[in-house]
Specification:
The complex is a heterodimer. By secondary structure, chain A is an all-beta fold. Chain A has strands at 4-7, 10-14, 19-25, 32-38, 45-51, 56-59, 62-67, 72-77, 86-93, 104-106, 110-115. By secondary structure, chain B is mostly beta strands. In chain B, strand 4 and strand 5 form a beta hairpin. Chain B starts with a strand and ends with a strand. The chains are: A mainly beta, B mainly beta.
């Protein structure tokens, strides 16, 4: 089955710097890659996602890139702010055909700390 | 529109007891799933369902049962609780019919087995 590896497990940056979190996946049939942000004590929330037919997607200060050949995707946060401090999860999913969605498998998470 | 509702929010069980974690969504989502979250291990998929009457195992299904009799509800049953099942449990749902939809999570159930 699908396996998603996420690095680093912890990341500390100064406010205003950029942060990059990387994930690799094992199943070349995976075609949907969302990223979630989880603040302390809260539920995970979707912040950005990318489909396999797209190489890059941006939304204000966050962007995601996908390299299908290498089977890895990354989250980029620019001009980091203290409120970006949270745990970030990547995930991968493939369509199982017949219009049904497949399993969504998560990476282990990255704790991002943005120091003021 | 309440989204994904999980009950209870907190629960303490004794080893060997059974219980059901409830999950309900009011968004007419076809796809529902259960995850457990443990420190350093991310979110691990327990069971999932692609529609009423259809369920399948995820990464860590042992010790858990599910059923999906309606589109709205997807309860998770712990048959005989063990300390290793101490965790935070999240239910999530999304539209079906394709793979390009984000998941909405419930607020979680914090379970402690003593």
């Amino acid at each position: 089955g699908e396996n998603v590896e996420q690095h680093p497990s912890t990341l500390s940056v100064q406010e205003g710097d950029s942060a990059v979190i990387k994930c690799t996946y094992s199943d070349s049939a995976s075609n949907y890659f969302p990223w979630y942000k989880q603040e302390l004590g809260k539920r995970p929330q979707l912040i950005i996602d990318i489909r396999s037919n797209v190489g890059e997607k941006k939304d204000q200060r966050i962007a995601v890139t996908l390299n299908k050949t290498a089977k890895h995707f990354s989250l980029h946060i620019t001009e980091t702010q203290p409120e970006d401090s949270a745990v970030y999860f990547c995930a991968a999913k493939k369509n199982m055909g017949s219009g049904n969605t497949g399993k969504l498998i998560f990476g282990q998470g990255t704790t991002l700390q943005v120091k003021p | 529109n309440a989204g994904v509702t999980q009950t209870p929010k907190f629960q303490v069980l004794k080893t060997g007891q059974s219980m059901t974690l409830q999950c309900a969504q009011d968004m007419n989502h076809e796809y529902m799933s259960w995850y457990r979250q443990d420190p350093g291990m991310g979110l691990r998929l327990i069971h999932y369902s692609v529609g009423a009457g259809i369920t399948d195992q995820g990464e860590v299904p042992n010790g858990y049962n599910v059923s999906r009799s309606t589109t709205e509800d997807f309860p998770l049953r712990l048959l005989s609780a063990a300390p290793s099942q101490t965790s935070v449990y999240f239910c999530a749902s999304s539209y079906g019919g394709g793979s390009y939809f984000g998941y909405t999570f419930g607020s979680g159930t914090r379970l402690t087995v003593v």
